[in-house]
Amino acid sequence: MPSAMGRVLGTLTWPFEAICFMLMRLYDVSMYTPIQTITAPVVRLIPRTLSIGGKKRVVFSANFVTWSRTVLVIPIAVCLKIGQPTAAFWLVILHDYLDHVDGIVARVHRNVYGPVDDPILGGFLDAFCDKIVNCLALWSILVVTDYRGMTVLQSSVLIASCAVVILYEFTIGVVRVQDYFRAFYSREFGKVNSHDQRSSSDSTKAAMEGKTKEKLESLGIAFLCLAQGSEVPMDHWGGAAGVVCLVLCIRLAHASLDRKLKARRIQEKNSGHDSKLKRIESAPPGEMERIETVYNHNLRLRDSQASDDLSDSKHDESIQDKLDPVDPVDAVFTVGCFDLFHTGHEILLQRMRKMGRKVVVGVHDSASIYKNKRRMPIESTETRMRNVKVYADVVFCIASADPTDYIECVFDKKAGETAVYVRGDDWPTFPGMKAVERLMPIRLLPYTPGVSSTQLRKRVSVCLADAVEENHRDIFY
């Protein structure tokens, strides 16, 4: 019975959807294409970055346009409150225009600068900010409307249409937030579900529904703003046109929400088997630490068997050639991630101990590692700092992608200490290098072959997603 009812409703709404999509295509041809043709060359002339304080800062991007148009909800509400409905009308139209501009900016920057913007974040901000503006604008209209001259039916229709649209927009906004974090998590940790792929026709239909809904909603809000200049808003043509646009928008909002929820149910159903496998393969509490310990132990045994005292002495001689034969300095500095602490880290810190009286190490926190490497470390910041503390005298946390400020704070110029900064020669240039060069000389140590955190991540065969999520839960939730 429910499926039969759905087929009946689908048959009845098909003409409506066909008309809406036809109007949307007409809008694309008559409005959007000219807007894009005129705006794109102007966007190319605006620089994306400017040099401020010796550093390049992003001053113009698609996200900046999105944030700017979101702020327009404030003057829209103010104009409605002070009795300037025409100004409110044009501000809504401006918001709708900027909704096109942020997409144009994203495409132009992608063509000119490459993939500089996060597409997942950009799409989420675009949709979510639309919902913030639409909901607050509709709420402002309901608050400032004078209901005294309106009939009960007129008041009911206005309030019901606005309230239903607000409810749908709020619900879709919640779903979009959940989908954003799901997509972000899947991208960063490889949990991409192959079943979560729509067909070309489904994607086109969903896009058309979304674009049509946004246009109808923007026009409805604009017309209702214009109707506030009349003594009886619902007797004004703008009031009637605005309600009609919102009623038409409700059908598309329902279809959009239904499509998103169906896609989620299909994804969860198809990923159920994978989830069971993940729970079996995931390491139980304490297993990760045991695996890392065993692996490091085996790695040390292999290194000791593969290299005798002669090779060690040759390796040390090559190090001394790079370091210059001088007396030990007062302090030896370095900065790193130290994820999955291994033999290479241990050798580096032991060599630092031979070079100076005090070993000072900065450890990047998880958020700064993500900014630099676009991936999360396996171990938490606390675990990595504890591992380093076994070999270092001072360990400090760096909560920024650029460690310059932290190094300058830790290094005491007035104390007159001699110092040296140590770095592996596999990465001779690094964030904060210019600041370090001003403070102390830099010495590059030979990279320990055959061992790295990246290799260790690949060698550990268990699923690490749960461990990563648990170690960095504060970043995601």
TrEMBL record:
Keywords tagged on the record: Membrane, Nucleotidyltransferase, Transferase, Transmembrane, Transmembrane helix
Entry keyword annotation includes Cell cycle: no
Gene3D superfamilies noted in UniProt: 1.20.120.1760, HUPs
Keyword field contains Transmembrane: yes
Cellular component GO terms, alphabetical: membrane
Positions in coiled-coil regions: none
Residue intervals passing through the bilayer: 157-177
GO biological process: phospholipid biosynthetic process
Residues covered by the Cytidyltransferase-like domain: 333-458
Gene Ontology MF terms in the entry: nucleotidyltransferase activity; phosphotransferase activity, for other substituted phosphate groups; transferase activity
Protein name as it appears in the record: Uncharacterized protein LOC118413533
Gene transcribed to yield this protein: LOC118413533
